[in-house]
Specification:
It is a single chain. This protein has helices at residues 29-36, 95-107, 117-124, 130-141, 145-155, 158-181, 190-222, 236-244, 287-302, 318-327, 367-378, 393-414, 419-437, 443-450; strands at residues 7-10, 17-25, 37-38, 52-59, 66-75, 86-93, 111-112, 224-230, 262-268, 271-277, 305-311, 332-337, 356-358. The chain folds into three domains: 7-128, Gyrase A, domain 2, CATH 3.30.1360.120; 135-218 and 388-450, Four Helix Bundle (Hemerythrin (Met), subunit A), CATH 1.20.120; 222-378, Rossmann fold, CATH 3.40.50.300. Helix 6 runs antiparallel to helix 7 (190-222). The protein is built from 14 helices and 13 strands. It has 457 residues and is an alpha/beta fold. The strands form two sheets. It has a seven-stranded mixed β-sheet. The structure holds guanosine-5'-triphosphate and magnesium ion.
């Protein structure tokens, strides 16, 4: 991509709308706009101050006919999206006026922009870093309010600041170590070594925590699946219905009612969930039912969270214990249903480390507590202290790589290995962190990132 060209694109989606925007950026943006614009008061884009809006017409170069009636805004470098001269022409939002205006600017010397090229220029000109550029796509594509919030935080530089301050700490450690490379006869004293390695370990801890926020952020972006499992007749379908407040699944007093996995969407505090009601798990010779049971077991494997349900009035059976065994090392909640009736479950048989919620799917009692517990389970590890979350797999992989290099650096310090080795690992950590903000990113990766953008962004 040639950064010297003046680029142009229709920045609004195709189709009909009240307004459509043609955006120009580059050295000739204002000149090109002046050549095709005509104001009733004689004002020219070339003569106005930055951040002015002009009313007028886009005309053909011969100034003989009007193409569209527009509002045209002028933003002069460096106070613009790209840090270059930018002109945005607010046209009527139909494809014909927009295409005509686009063609005119192209005829006057502008080149059609590649996808994401405006944002690419903002990145190349240092207005935003790579993580902020990526946040603009996330913001455009956000499907829930929480993912929108995460994207706008990243766009405003929260992640960039965190990465920069971590890099500064590592650079300090690195400077300390590198000072000794030139004086191999001098030894780091034990105290300094301990200080440096504990500083390094502190950074490792922070980076690990940051990396672990990826899963939680993914939940907001993509939603998560919750499987309700249990023996037949414990009230799984009744719970699904109670959660979504609709009679979606068939409920009967006969065990083995549900045969197929039924999926419904639910939103808890902006957290999008896909709730799956499954067939009751038991030994059966009925073909359809045993296929249902097989699917229930598969649903457990695919779920981000499992609600294991038991009837509070019945003693736990072997099947219940094998369900408990299955969910032991997964994110799960024990749901004791039919709490409106008398209790007989030996709750002390349920492992203490599993959270238990008592509900009545029939009366709705305890459903709110269950929703709270679902949230608490998902966010068990807690959001990192300063609220920065990783939403992008590329960032997570770079962080994980940084943690590995930094751990090797820490070991090298502790074991008194040659300073060159420690310095090498520290430099590698810095490079990996640099990838996140785009300081040490290959052209290949940049191309891949910006090609995901829409044209005009
Ligand atoms: N008293 C009482 N009855 C309930 C409660 N929840 C469900 N039931 C009843 O228990 C029976 C079974 O409920 P379902 O929701 O069909 O149970 P299920 O676990 O989906 O059963 P399968 O699909 O056969 O695995 C029905 O008669 C429900 O009305 C509850 O909280 N209290
Ligand atoms: Mg059912």
């Amino acid at each position: 991509m040639n950064l010297e060209d003046t680029i142009v694109a229709i920045s609004t989606p195709s189709g009909e709308g009240g307004i459509g925007i043609v955006r120009l950026s580059g050295k000739n943006a204002i000149n090109i706009a002046s050549g095709i614009f005509c104001s009733p008061t004689g004002k020219s884009p070339a003569k106005v101050r930055s951040h002015s809006i002009l009313y007028g017409y886009i005309t053909n170069p011969e100034k003989t006919s009007h193409i569209d009636e527009v509002l045209l805004s002028v933003m002069r470098a460096p106070h613009s999206y790209t840090r270059e001269d930018v002109v945005e022409i607010n046209c009527h939002g139909g494809m014909l006026p927009l295409r005509k205006v686009l063609e005119l600017t192209a005829r006057e010397g502008a080149r059609l922009a590649e996808p994401g090229e405006f944002t690419f220029r903002a990145f190349m000109n240092g207005r935003i870093d790579l993580s902020q550029a990526e946040a603009t796509i996330d913001l455009i594509r956000a499907k829930t309010d929480r993912s929108r919030r995460l994207a706008i935080e990243q766009l405003s530089g929260a992640l960039s600041e965190k990465i920069t301050s971590t890099k500064n700490t590592i650079m300090d450690i690195c400077a300390h170590i590198e000072a000794y490379i030139d004086f191999p006869e001098e030894e780091l004293d034990l105290q300094t070594r301990t200080d440096l390695s504990s500083k390094t370990d502190e950074v490792i801890l922070q980076l690990r925590k940051l990396s672990s926020t990826y899963d939680e952020a993914r939940f907001f972006r993509e939603g998560l699946s919750v499987a309700i499992i249990g023996r037949p007749n414990v009230g799984k379908s009744s719970l699904l219905n109670a959660l979504i407040e609709k009679e979606r699944a068939i409920v009967t007093e006969l065990p083995g009612t549900t045969r197929d996995v039924i999926e419904e969407c639910l939103n808890i505090n902006g957290l999008p969930l896909r709730i799956m009601d499954t067939a009751g798990i038991r030994e059966t010779h009925n073909l359809a039912e045993s296929e249902g049971v097989r699917r229930s077991l598969m649903a457990i494997d695919g779920a981000d969270l499992v609600l294991a349900m038991f009837d509070i009035n019945l003693p736990l059976k072997d099947e219940d214990f094998s369900i408990i065994e299955k969910i032991r090392d997964r994110k799960s909640i024990i749901v004791l249903n039919k709490a409106d009736l008398s209790h007989s479950v030996e709750e002390d048989l349920i492992p203490e480390d599993l959270p238990i919620v008592r509900i009545s799917a029939k009366t709705g009692a305890g459903i709110d507590s269950l929703k709270k517990e679902v949230e608490a389970r998902i966010f068990k590890s807690g959001v990192s202290s300063d609220g920065v979350m990783i939403t992008n797999l590329r960032h997570k992989l770079a962080l994980d790589h940084a943690v590995k290099s930094l751990s090797r650096a820490s070991d090298a310090i502790k074991n008194g290995m040659p300073y060159e080795i420690t310095a090498f690992e520290l430099r590698d950590t810095l490079d990996r962190l640099g990838e996140i903000v785009g300081e040490t990113t290959t052209e290949d990766i940049l191309n891949r990132i910006f090609s995901q953008f829409c044209i005009g962004k």
